[in-house]
Here is the input.
Amino acid sequence: MSPLSPDRARRRPARAAAAALGAALLLSACSSGGGASGAGGASADSTPEITTSLPAATGQAERVSWALYNEPSSLDPIKISDFPIQQVVTNVCESLLKLTPDMTIVPNLAESWENPEPTVWVYHLRDGVTFHNGGTMTAEDVVYSMQRAADYDLGSMVAGAYDPVESIEATGPLEVTVTLKQPDVTFHQEMATSTGRVFSKAVTEAQGEQVGTPNAHVDCTGPYRIGEWKAGEHITIERFDDYWDGEHLAQTDEVRFTFVRDSAARVNGMLSGEIQGSWNVPPSGFAKLSRTDQGGLFFGETSGAFIAWVSSLEGGLKDQRVRQALSMAIDREGIIKAAMSGAADPLYTVASSGTWGYAKERFQEASDEIAALPRSVEEAKRLVAEAGPQPPIVLATTSSQPEMPIVAAEIQRAGKEIGLEVDIKTLPEDTYNSLYGDAEARKGIDMIFTTWQTYYPDPISLYVFLQSDNFYNYAQWKNEEFDELVATARQTADEDERAELLIQAQRIAYDDPTWIPVFQPYNPVYVGAGLTGVPTAAIQHNVPWAQGLGVGDAVAGE
Here is the structure.
C-alpha cells in the first residue's frame, strides 16, 4: 500500500498554479480569428468556422518547424509552469486516459477501468507498452508516477489533484488501485490530463533532480521521444518507432520547436514559411495570415474564458452592486471585435460551453437564461448610485499581451459612463505574472486579467476556484451556499444531478461576481501549406497532437 502525505490538504492546490502562472501568456495561445479559406478557415472579415480536427494526413512528413511563444524551463511533466512545456511534452509522455477532440475521455495507457465503490478506482493497464529507453511499463511505473505527481516537495504543479487520494497500490502486474478519502468526480477525469502521465520509474529515479533538463530527457511512452534540446534555440522530438499503437505511428519524422517570444516575429515567420505551424497566433496577425499562400489559420472551441478577476474586496470593488454594474456596462462585443478580431464569443458565466462534457442541453439552457437577463447602462447607473461614493478601482494590465490594454480601456470607459473611476496600472510582464501567486504583489490592486483553460470537460474544474478556502479565491469571497453546492457536486457521480448543483452555484457566482467573464476565445492553429492532421479543438496541452501531423492540404480541404 502506498499512502499519501496526510498534510497535503492543508497546502495550496498546486494543480491550478499552472493555469494561473501562465494565464497572461496563455492569452495569445487561446486567442483566435480569421484564417485562409478552405477546411476550417475563414476570411479576416467573417466569422471563423469552428471545427474539431483538420483532415487526416495522407503521407509522412520529414521535418516540421513549430513555433512556441517561450522556451520551456523544464520538460518534466509535473512541472507545468507554462503552456509551451505542455505542447512539447504531451507528444512524449502519455496519460492513463485520453481526451478526444470532442472532449470525450477514452482509454489510453489504461485500457479499461472499474469504479466498484464510490471511493475506489481500479485501472487495468495496457500490456506490452514500451518506454523510449526500452523498458516495459508495469503497474510499479504507474504507482511511482502518481506518487511523484502528488509530491509537493518535488515542486509538482499537479499535486493538488491528488489531495482527495488516500492510497495508491499496485494490485497486480498491470493493475493499479486508487482509494479516495471520499467520493470525488474530479480525480478520474484528471487521469486524462498531465496529472495522469506515466514515466519510467527506473530512468526517472536514476536522473534524480536532473529529469526534464537538456541533459536528462524524460523517459515516457508517447509517439515521439525527445531528440535534442539546444537551450535558447530549439527542441526536437523524433518519431518513436516502437510506439505501442502501431496502427497510429507519428506521421512526421521530426518536429522542431523554436522559441519566438515576439508575436510579430511569429507572424512574420509564418508568412515567410520559416514557421510551419503554431497555436500561438496573435489576433494582430489574423488578417495577414488569412491572405497568405504559405498556409491557413483554423479554429476550434476552447474550454477557456477571459476573466476580469476581482483580486480584492477591500477597495473600489467591495460593494456587490458595483461589481454587478461594471459587468453590465462592459461592451463585450466591442472588446471581441477590437481585441480578438471577432474570434471569440461573449461570455456571462465563469464556465464556458467548452466545459460542458455532460448535460449539455441543460447547461446551454441555464447559460442562455443568464445571457438573456436584462442589462442596461441605466440599470448599472442605478446600482452605482445606490451603492454610493466609491474609491477608484485599480485595474492592473500589461502591454506585453496586446489584448489586455484593449479590455482595460473598455472597462475604464464603461466605469466612467456609469459613474465609477477606474485607474489603469500598466506593469511589466514579469511583474504582472507575479500577481498570480504573490498576495503582497497584489496589494492595492482591485482587478487583474486571466484566461483560464480547463483540463477536462466539467464546469466543476473552474467553480472549485471560487470556493472560500481555495488559494485562487484572491478576493476572499465567501458564500456558504455556493461552497456547499460545489462540495456536494464534487461528490455527486450522477451527471444530471451534478449539473443541477453547478447551475445553482453558477447563478450565485453571476449575481455576486468576483470573476467577471468577458469572452470565450476560439482556439487558433496555423498550419503551413502541404500539412494537415492536427486537432483544432483545444486539447493540444493534453494529447499527442503531433501524432497525426503529416503531409496533406488542410488549406484546400479534404
